[in-house]
Fold ABC transporter ATP-binding protein YadG.
Amino acid sequence: MSKERVRERTDRPARPFRAHRDVLDAAPDPLSPVGAMPPIISITGLSKVYASGFQALRSVNLEIRRGEIFALLGPNGAGKTTLIGIVCGIVSPTEGRVTVDGHDIRAAYRKTRRLIGLVPQELTTDAFETVWATVSFSRGLFGLKPDPGHVERVLKDLSLWEKRDSRIMTLSGGMKRRVLIAKALSHEPQVLFLDEPTAGVDVELRQDMWRLVRRLRDQGVTVILTTHYIEEAEEMADRVGVIRRGEIILVEEKAELMRKLGRKQLTLQLQSPLDALPPALAVHRLDLSADGSELTYTYDSQGERTGITALLTDLRAAGLRFRDLQTRQSSLEDIFVDLVKERA
Ligand SMILES: Nc1ncnc2c1ncn2[C@@H]1O[C@H](COP(=O)(O)OP(=O)(O)O)[C@@H](O)[C@H]1O
Ligand SMILES: [Mg+2]
């Protein structure tokens, strides 16, 4: 694809939901695989030092692909909300540049903000308004014409339709969170940010949210969610980024990351200690403890379970007996420690 054509396509006026799909579904261009599409969000050299002097982001570079579900994973205080705040124009960056659909977020604030829906981490709602009024008003804030049909669809998607005439203050915490999502979708954004959407929500809402996110992705919306739950990233994301102390330490396809993260260990206490690993067991990924009394087998959660059967068969054939065994799964903590070690 020539540069001119790229520009032409990205400069198309913002259109709701399906705009991006239209681009993807355009007549196939053999020279232009989808991967070559310019990123929907591009973050370069982004740093943030708060007025307190605290540095929350350190030269972050990150590209979000069109139409993907991207999970930004990191412990509390890592800088996730700060990063989202900058892209949404709520927090001002100290250094660096962010573009959304090719437009600089500062030079073209209204244009880029209009493309984005944000579901904030904290519950912030207008207590006295009704659900319907809140969501409709939110749409108006972006200068869009009223569209009761769209508002109705959004409320129905979020199981809020029955509550449309209720004042926000009468709703449960879970329902208020649904209202925040409805507000974020009121202006048909192309990019949706969900900041810790499922922290402390019930199972039903979590599942509804996951279903909604997938449906949005199917409509061509790019979804960026932050979480400190590995399971959530595993369940939802196409790609995962890990942030720690303001630094992006890893960005990877989920499948690849889960292969690395989902490590498990099986430890066998042997009946009699070994001097060395028998050569017949060399094909297995085994570690012998210093005193020769324990064998540890490390495997990942995806697809290596059959390895255990083979290992046990080979142990038996080698005449090794064990008196006890333990399994252990790497925790999120271990994973972060491992990642940090790896990058050091
Ligand atoms: N307005 C602020 N002033 C000073 N420090 C802040 C401010 N907002 C956030 N921080 C600090 O910046 C760090 C990153 O915060 P945040 O982006 O909220 O992280 P996360 O969302 O990953 O938990 C934290 O240490 C937090 O205390
Ligand atoms: Mg946060």
Q: What stands out?
A: The radius of gyration is 25 Å. The domain at 9-258 is CATH 3.40.50.300 (Rossmann fold). The chain has two domains: 9-258, 263-343. Residues 80-81, 121, 195-196 surround magnesium ion (ligand 2) (CB under 6 Å).
